[in-house]
Amino acid sequence: MNDTALERIAEALERLSPVPMAQPDWSAQAYVWHVHPDRLVPVQSVNRVSLDLLIGVDRSRDTLLANTCQFAAGLPANNALLWGARGMGKSSLVKAVHAHVLEQHPDLKLVELQREDLPSVGQLLNVLRDAPARFLLFCDDLSFSHDDEHYKSLKAVLDGGIEGRPDNVILYATSNRRHLMPRDMIENERGSAINPSEAVEEKVSLSDRFGLWLGFHPCDQDQYLDMIQGYCDAHGVSIPPEQLRAEAIEWQATRGSRSGRVAWQYFTDLAGRHGVNVS
To answer: Is-above-0.90 flag for pTM?
Structure first.
């Protein structure tokens, strides 16, 4: 084989090899992790609400805030699983707590990781390990089906493997399921397995690796109305209490549910009718 052929082969191999990841710009407050190619994309403006606007989650708020303050200060802290009812502010709380702690600890960065990108979490941890900051790794709406293998990648964050989880990284995840997989799948696998106690132990025990479990439960009508009133006060929307109550109750009745998300959806409509911009 002549030199020209070898040069062409070498050039072809260089084109096939992945481009090394550029050093991220750590000046942003938040990032989103993307793959193909691997990269951290800065987020210029995080979509979040103020911590004091989250009603009915006082205990979870105080616990998560204290844990985050410990971590930001370089002290021991736990990974946290926020689980429970839809629309009750799980992801909003994570982002609000980050913003609150950021005022005292500007080197605390928020990094969002999609569930579908969990297999690449090892590469992400390698990027964050030597970075000059502390990172709150956020995985929203985390859950697994019976044939889903992504949960194995999550152990790299929770347990760290032989290298251990980086000291400057902590994981907060939200889920509608306490054990991260549907109960009917748990029961089906137990019922069809030769050894039922081991059939789903590996997946179910994944949630046990979170040091904090914070439960979110459906709100009652008073909490629902308090949420809306809090939004009105914060954004300067004035409406007679009787009208607010009647409209808000009708709104949640047409949705067939009552939650923080429904409260915000009603307030968005109300603010629009009053010509108030809430963005």
So the answer is: no
